Amino acid sequence: MEHRTSRQHVVDMCRTMLERGYLKATEGNVSVRVPGHQLYAVTPSNYDYDKMRVEDICIVDFAGKHVPDGSGVELKPSIECGMHANVYRDRPDVNAIVHTHQPYASALAFLRKEIPALTDEQVRFLGKRVAIVDYAPSGTGFLAKNVQKKVANGDNAFIIANHGIIALGTDPDRAVFNMALLEKVSIAYLLALTTETGKVYTIPTAIREIAFSKLRKDERRIAAQITEAVTPLRVPDDEAPPSADAVAAEEADPGETPGYAISEYLDVPDTMRRLKALVAQPVRGLRHDALLDVLNYFETKCRGSKEITDRAKQRIPGGVQHNLAFNYPFPLAIDRAEGAYLTDRDGNTYIDFLQAGGPTILGSNYAPVNEQVAAVIRESGPVTGLFHEYELKLAEIINQYMPHVEMYRSLGSGTEAVMAAVRAARAVTGHKMVIKVGGAYHGWSDTMVYGLRVPGSFRMNAKGIPFGATARTREAFPHSVGELRRKLIENRLRGGTAAVIVEPLGPESGTRPVPRDFNAKVRALCDEFGAMLVFDEVVTGFRVGLGGAAGYFGVTPDLTVFGKAVSGGYPMAGGVGGRAEIMNAFGSGLDGKSGAHIQVGGTLSANPLSCAAGYFAIQEMARTNAPVIAGRAGDRLTRGLRRLIDKYGLPYVAYNQGSIVHLECSGVMLLDMRSPLKLLKENKARKRLMEQMGAAYTAHGIITLAGSRMYTSMADTDAVIDAALDRFDQVFAQVEGV
User: Fold this and answer.
1) What global pTM score does this model have?
2) Are both 414 and 497 inside the same structural domain?
3) What are phi and psi of 502, to 5 degrees?
4) 381-432: per-residue pLDDT in tens?
5) 19, 27, 80, 121: which one is catalytic?
6) In terms of residue numbers, what domain contains 97?
7) pLDDT per position as a tens digit, 692-701
8) Which of 75, 364, 373, 409 is 20 to 30 Å from the Cα of 641, by its Cα?
9) Virtual CA dihedral for 656, 658, 659, 665, nearest 10 degrees?
10) Neighbours of 15 (CB within 10 A)
């Protein structure tokens, strides 16, 4: 089917307006310009729009003539297609048109009252006035010409006598927005007229009732938006941004305790208030024309990636082996990584804020570590199957910077480490229950795929996992210390709580950031109820600082889970460490001691390649002060993003915890089961917006994690961050409504 994307936009517009009550049954018509052609896609004539399909949409040329696709089953286009053709021909800035019927706009036409400039918003988006187009029979050339005369002045909304209204937009979302704005100003002006002192306007009773009820509903909605609104974060133009270069230039004192990446802990209540305000608003993404440019980038500049990932779908489920690689509209194939940059198969270079999901704090493909690892591997090979000195060296250097990790057991991944920690906690305490924070990610083991990413979702993502595997797992809502206490009390009747496992910065690497004292309160509860506190430091370990989040918060967990950074970006990155009396359980009886022993294994765990890489990477991080440098780069990036968000008046939220930077444009990760209807209704749209923004960043040379999270590294100099901010500026300038 030709021009499928434009047809789909028409269907999406119809569904949006049906949901919001702007379009009813067969009243009106909708169209979208086909980019690069003298054509547009338009709804068929007298069609039930709630049953609209992509294949039902008609293609018409700028002369108003139907262009059949040859199937022989196409419906006839709207009888108003000539009017649309005239608009597209005379207004190149218009890419979408809505024509529908409104009783209050019809009342204004009846009174011959054009809408004057009532608000700045109206003037900005609709024009200085909303003119009335003279009557002409529906579907005739007379009506098309009457509209053509009015639209030439550049306004974007008109009342058509006896035919409702017409709203124009630079893209489909803008046309729908202008439609809604026109409805609001029509009601406001109509009510102003009906209450004008000394004058009486005869308006049919039915129209008056519709207008008043609609206004009351709008007043409640607007009042709620004002209540939930937050003042923008202002960044003074003359403020000197944080500098990673300044930290890098400082000579490290070998005897000094390494610092932390978080220069100032964020204001959690204010951040959560802004995130909730974002979720309360309709989504705001790219303009239609800008999104088409993004998709065109992938189609024309990334052909090599598309070819190889399409081939991969024949042999690899989904075409990629890791969730991080699932990018919209298709995955990129990377050939080269170095420092702050990635280069794809087609030779396109990107600023890399993915950093392999967070482990490469030194920057990608860091040569000093590679050279030392290569020297070890030349002697021993990547694996021996027997003990190697770097197993001990890695455990010792972890203990050097994290004294609470008295013993360390290497495993293959963070998922394996979480499994081992839970098993050890149950074996040592004799308790059975495990509590996690809803929305947190602790790997994909059977026990932990519970309340995954969406708080309160329980087993919604647990397909293929038997009920017994999660029968002793519970979740508490983020930030709710009171609910955690209740779960601990309930678990007393179920055999007690073996462990409470948390991401110390908050679920999903701080997507829901925790208050500064949250971890200390959880520690106190664990002590009160005889449960172990497990810190999942897969992301935060070494990235927050060499002392990890435990060192930063000053809270000592019983067990700590490692991954990603513990091997400096090399594979087989994972392990668990903690107090010696707990860690002895991992001896599997080989140490000759009595007591609880658990079975864990892995032929490739603690191989020379991974252990040497981890040891040398931690050494280099300490020598270069990499976590602090990366943290200041995160500060600079966040400050710049906030300035851009304020510049363009966007509802987006940017914040960071050191080198972990969050840029929320849709707030999809803030949806939860406390509002299940909102989750069901908005999840797909908000997820789609996040994917589209991620694609836009990529098309402008920035790689992010799913369009909402970024990891900075030591390689991100001030120049790199400033270049990235210039590219974000270009993307934000293309957001709908800017």
Assistant:
1) 0.76
2) yes
3) -135, 155
4) 998 888 999 999 999 999 999 999 999 999 999 999 999 999 999 999 999 9
5) 80
6) 4-228
7) 999 999 999 9
8) 364
9) 0
10) 14
